[in-house]
Amino acid sequence: MKTSLRLFLLAVVVTSTIGCDRVTKHLATERLAEQPAQSFLADSFRLQYAENTGGFLSMGAELPPLARTLLFTVATGLFLVALLAGLLRFRGSLGWSLGVAFVLAGGVSNWIDRVVNGRVVDFLNVGLGSFRTGIFNVADVAIMLGVGMLVVLEWSDRATRSTPSGQTAGG
Hints:
Blueprint: H1 3-31, E1 38-40, E2 45-52, H2 65-89, H3 94-117, E3 120-128, E4 131-132, H4 138-162
Helix pairs in contact: 1-3, 2-3, 3-4
């Protein structure tokens, strides 16, 4: 794939993911804040407004404000810059680039929340009965999708590398 087409595709993925996350967080803030959780599909899907000052599953929310700022704003910002630089220089598979692009897009959108508001807006929750996820947002879905893609691609690459020449991975 030509470099310019590849960069265009990655830019579309990043900007559309960030845009979708920003719009849904705005809608959640406008329509769900200070409202009770809304349940759908026999309570397997909930819309429930939450503000998260911590990281994944609110880890670190109890840290002092300065420590949270250093960890979730400064360190994350530096990580995202490095991720962007790596993405722009990487010439491997498009799948790997897309996985990194989803992680970058989700990270940037949540980082924007932290810089502007000191917290991230979450509003989605799924589960069955008492088995439920934490409350999350579209950016979190993008990050998990990207990480999932990278894990699957790594397993696939390892299986291909460990298979003797002339044999398939299945035997």
